Amino acid sequence: MNSQDQKVVVITGASQGIGAALVDAYRKLGYAVVATSRTIAPSGDAGVLTVQGDIADPATAERVIAAGVERFGRIDTLVNNAGLFVAKPFTDYTADDYAGVTGVNLTGFFRITQLTIGHMLAQGGGGHIVNITTSLVDNADSKVPSVLASLTKGGLQSATKSLAIEYATRGIRSNAVSPGTIRTPMHPAETHAALAGLQPVGRLGEESDIVDAVIYLENAPFVTGEILHVDGGVSAGH
Fold first, then answer.
1. d(C-alpha 174, C-alpha 118), whole Å
2. What is the pLDDT of residues 90-137, one digit of tens each?
3. What span, in angstroms and rounded, lies between the C-alpha atoms of 120 and 115?
4. CA distance to 70, 160, 203, 218, per residue, from 196 (Å)
5. H-helix or E-strand containing 209?
6. pLDDT per residue over 139-171, tens digit each?
7. Which DSSP string do the residues of 73-127 spell out, in sequence order?
8. Range 201-205, long-range pairs (CB < 8 A, 24+ positions)
9. What's the CA gap between 15 and 11, in Å, rounded?
10. Which of 17, 128, 6, 8 is nearest to 83 (CA)?
C-alpha cells in the first residue's frame, strides 16, 4: 500500500507510445500509476500496477479501478489515452470497424471515467480527467477521411467540456489534449515524410509534446474544460 498522500493516476493504452511515456512522466512527478492495456507486461516498479485487459469491455474498467484502489487506496487522475484510429472513405467502414473504434474510443472512456469520478467524489471531491482526442475533430482533412475518429473523439471532446461544468464546484477538472500527427508506433516509418508534409510546421510532433501538454494540465488548477491543441498549427488553418 502507498501512503494516502501520494497521488495516483490511471492511464489507459499504457503499454507503448504516448501511454508508456505518460507512465514515466507521472512517476517522475511522484505519482503512483495504474497502467492498463491489452498487452501490458508486469512492471518491476512497485509504484506501477499493471492491469491487462481490453478497455472496450466495461469489465476491464471495473478491474482496473478496483485493483488501483486496493493497491494504492485512491484515484486522483485518469488519462483516457487508449484510442483506435481507422482512416477509410466513409462508405468503406465495416460493422467491425464501427464496433472496434466505438468500443475503445467511447465505451472505453465511459465506464472507467464513471468509476473514477465516483471514487473521487467518495474521497471528498477533487481530481482530474484528461482525454486524448485528435485535431481531425476540429479540422477535417480531405487527405485523411476519418469520420469514425471524428464521431468518437468528437464525442469525447464534447464530453470533456460537459464533465468540466458538471463537476466544477466539486473540484474535479476535465480537460483534453488534441494532438496533430505524432511520431508513434501507430505510423510506419515510411509514412513519416508524407505525414510531416501535412503539418503547417512541416514536421511530426513527438510523444514528448503530448506528455508535456498533459503534465501542464495536471499542474494547472484553474484550467478546466480546455481543449489543448498540440498539432503544429493544424487548428489555426492551412
1. 14
2. 999 999 999 999 999 999 999 999 999 999 999 998 999 999 999 999
3. 9
4. 44, 28, 4, 29
5. helix 207-218
6. 998 888 999 999 999 999 999 999 999 999 999
7. S---EEEE---------GGG--HHHHHHHHIIIIIHHHHHHHHHHHHHHHTTS-E
8. 201/232, 201/233, 203/232, 204/232, 205/179, 205/180, 205/181, 205/230, 205/231, 205/232
9. 10
10. 17
What b/e string do you get for 17-53 counting C-beta neighbours within 10 Å, with b at 16 or more?
Answer: bbbbbbbebbbeeebbbbbbbeebeeeeeebbbbbeb
What CATH number should be reported for the domain whose range is 8-229? 3.40.50.720
What is the bridge-based pairing of β-strands 32-37 and 77-80?
unpaired
HEC assignment per residue over 17-80: HHHHHHHHHHHHCCCEEEEEECCCCCCCCCCEEEEECCCCCHHHHHHHHHHHHHHHCCCCEEEE
CA-nearest of 78, 234, 83 to 155 is: 83
Cβ partners under 8 Å of residue 35, min gap 6: 11, 14, 15, 19, 23, 43, 48, 49, 50, 51
| C-alpha cell belonging to residue 66 | 478496483
Nearest to 85 by CA among 160, 184, 204: 184
Q: Which three cell numbers stand for residue 203?
A: 514536421
27-69 pLDDT, tens digit each: 999 999 999 999 999 999 999 999 999 999 999 999 999 999 9
Q: Are 7 and 34 in contact (CB under 8 A)?
A: no
Domain boundaries, the chain: 8-229
